[in-house]
Amino acid sequence: MTLLISGGTVVTGTGSYAADVLVDGETIAALYAPGRAPAGGEVVDAAGKYVIPGGIDAHTHMELPFGGTFASDTFDTGTRAAAFGGTTTIIDFAVQRTGENVHEGLAAWHGKADGNCHIDYAFHMIIGGVDDEALKAMDALVEHEGITSFKLFMAYPGVFYSDDGQILRAMQKSRGNGAITMMHAENGIAIDVLIGQALARGETDPIHHGLTRPSELEAEATRRAISLAKVAGDTPLYIVHLSASEALAAVAQARDGGRNVFAETCPQYLYLTLEDQLGAPGFEGAKWVCSTPLRSRHESHQRDLWQGLRGNDLAIVSTDHCPFCYKDQKELGRGDFSKIPNGIGGVEHRVDLLYQGVVDGKLSLERWVETVATTPARMFGLYPRKGVIAPGSDADIVVYDPAGRTTISVETHHMNMDHSAYEGFEIAGKVDTVVSRGTVVVARGEYLGRKGHGRYLPRGLSTYLS
Ligand code: DUC
Ligand code: ZN
Ligand code: ZN
């Protein structure tokens, strides 16, 4: 069975051109000059639209246990919402917390995802307890399980936190097995002191979540992670959810020195601020409690992040999708901001929000595709199966309508959240058709996919390293 995506403009990381894309079964068979493809089969009319590789969200947390509750999207609801928004692959984080077994943590994650996903999925592994057993397991995961990236935390003491010695040992392990170290770079020990002091002063509102996590402590941790990676034989390092100018400067400096140091940012840091959202009146700001936190609009963070994206000091835009409902979940922190579960949901909106950057003149079309699809595939060992429109690649394709319009709202989104972090945002573009491994899963707002279509993707080593 073939599918022809006809009349559109194919956008890649390196250029845009008119072409018809022929899909045969689950993969892309060929690209043709417009009108030259053989007739027959199903046709998607892409005239006037962009044809891009399906989005890859390299940072999601479906059903993450956090702060006494669980992220509110399951693999079923979260991957369906992702598909609506033009994301056809997620890389979620399997979890080992302090005191737990890595293999058991991974098995639990497979148990949550298996048979429930609407799009393809892969896993990173959070190592929350670096010890001899966990270090051994890291080798096994790279060799046998298709997991080639490990996230460590310099924050959340007692839950996910690793001290510098543990970080160094895990980095040395990854240096040996070829994996990428992903780092949540915030000085959690200093942050916990600031949180205790704020609460003692009676400062309990959500904005104090941001004020007790100053950008200096993100930058300090980022610099420390970069130094530790150097000591660990210059092992590749990827800073997750980078939010602050000073942290970006540290990454840029390392990159200027030729290091394999990379970073992602997330839409919330490009569009939302400490004052406008986290500082909303009453307890409302709880909706935007996430870590790293939203930064001040009075500083240069957003401008610098957009510039970092243009120049590749920020390689990828992921969402850190970690949704919690306001009712009963965010509300756990009424009267104590430190008890608000950390996370923002956005897996459905990343491709749109970054396209708005194109409309606003902040990113080129090609850079849009690179940051939401191609680089994530290369960085995390999915390329060229994913992230590119080329013969032999999986037919994960989004037809994007630059003449369409998207209004983001809790009334229309598909994530399992009772609010939207981007309520009322208008995007001058719209996802038109989404194809996942050759199957049309979304067509002009109608859902045609199914739970169980998504498959686990064992990943190879990164092909992005220099
Ligand atoms: N940050 C969040 O906001 N949520 C989950 C974990 C994290 O690091
Ligand atoms: Zn994190
Ligand atoms: Zn995260």
Give short descriptive properties of this protein.
466 residues, alpha/beta, Urease, subunit C, domain 1, TIM Barrel, 2 domains, eight-stranded parallel sheet, seven-stranded mixed sheet, 13 helices, 23 strands, binds dihydropyrimidine-2,4(1H,3H)-dione, binds zinc ion
What does this structure look like?
By secondary structure, this protein is of the alpha/beta class. Helix content is 31%, strand content 22%. The protein has two domains: 2-52 and 385-447, Urease, subunit C, domain 1; 55-379, Alpha-Beta Barrel (TIM Barrel). The strands form five sheets. The chain has an eight-stranded parallel beta sheet. Helix 3 runs parallel beside helix 4 and helix 8 packs parallel to helix 11 (301-311). Strand 4 and strand 5 (27-32) form a beta hairpin. Bound molecules: dihydropyrimidine-2,4(1H,3H)-dione (DUC) and zinc ion (2 copies). Residues 61, 66, 184, 290-291, 320, 322, 342-343 line the site of dihydropyrimidine-2,4(1H,3H)-dione (DUC).
